[in-house]
Amino acid sequence: MDFTVRATVMQTPTRGTFTTLEDARIRVVDGTIVAISNTGEADVTLPPDHVLVPGFIDLHIHAPQWPQLGTGYDLPLSEWLFEHTFPLEARFDDLPFAQQTWEDMVPALLAHGTTTAVYYGSIHTPATTALAEACIHHGQRAWVGRAAMDHPEGTPEWYRDDDADTALAATRESIAQIGALDDPHNLVHPIITPRFIPACTDELLTGLGALAAETGIIVQTHCSEDDWEHHHVIERTGQRDTDALDSFGLLRPSTVLGHGVHLNAEDFATIRDRGAGVAHCPLSNVYFGNAVFPAAQALDAGVHVGLGTDVAGGPSASVLANAARAVDSSRMLEDGVDASASPAERGVQGSRIDAFTAFWLATMGGGSVLDEPLGLIEEGRRFDAVAVSLAELAPSTAGYTPERRFEQLVRLAGRREITDVWVDGRQVIGDL
């Protein structure tokens, strides 16, 4: 497939920077951007009030929680899991129910501009394979993992693997099934998925770490998500979550660590040195994190950081909405929230990020965690892109600079303004 798109491109090549390519012609061959110029004919031309931006990367989604999006946030994490989430996930033993859910979820996420998704499945191998099939069918780039969880105290009796050997065998089978799918564009990949330490025995965690080393398949799990999970790991293992995961062989290049709200400087150094990264989930952290993830400090420490919606721990499926909230939460962390404390003691200095950095997290940041050529419209990268209409973002924008218009895009654009989406050079939303 060889075509050229004519559009004005807005993007963030590096943390905190913003660039505009006015009236660019982007030539795409077999999904790869091979040339960008300002002259020549085009096969596809965006309307003048539209801009083209890189596709959004969601590093942390619980696919079987899609039906409960926006519900149950009155409970702390441990109760929310046992009372709401595990009962729902157990239903994915019903393959038709799972397939119906995926057929609703994957197109909806693409319509939000999520060109790449990193999914937790349920413990059910057929449902997890069906999720991978849905991603291939609808054209979404994805990493899909069967959730492994066998701990008799950290999981309910009716929703867990029987033991570590069963979980390891099922994980191998899931990897094999996803790898055997007809995926001509190589969009979908397996990912090893220990849910988190409270849900897994040491034997299972060790086995999954060995499996990652054996296969080279990347890992996803939760790390220092909230007070309960963070302190549970310390009490059980005598180590902080980061060091415990490292001891099990699970902290590896491109390991995706969900949340990381309670990580400290030593944790950041370990994560950086292992080549792992953090999926920052700002909306979910409001409800379950008990604190704010220090995104600026993590980036300053050299940690790879991207964004996650944490569906359904976060009440929005939009990566852009989470980018906007990442800015908000960073301001709260820097300024503090307790007015009874003095200004000097109220917040954490140096925590603020701007809209450009937040968008970079949603695009280039996610690509850096996965170590994939994504997140930027640039020669040599894959053409994952989103067309956004700027026409209705604000009632009067005469004289606004591109930078100000882009800020509006980050903070205000949603599914209504996203008109067209491409993944790996193929249009999956819209009809341009």
* Helix run count: 14
Overall structural domain count: 2
Q: Give Rg in angstroms.
A: 21 Å
Side by side, the strands of the main sheet go 3-2-1-4
Main beta sheet strand tally, sense and closure: 4 strands, mixed
Unreliable stretches (pLDDT < 50, length at least 5) are none
| Terminus-to-terminus distance | 15 Å
Which bin fits the share of residues in helices?
25-40%
CATH homologous superfamily (4th level) name of the largest domain: Metal-dependent hydrolases
User: Which word captures the global form?
Assistant: globular
CATH architecture of the largest domain: Alpha-Beta Barrel
Structural class assignment: alpha/beta
* Chain-averaged pLDDT: 97
CATH topology of the largest domain, anyone?
A: TIM Barrel
* CATH level 1 name of the largest domain: Alpha Beta
Question: What is the count of β-strands?
Answer: 18
**Approximately what portion of the residues adopt beta-strand conformation?**
15-25%
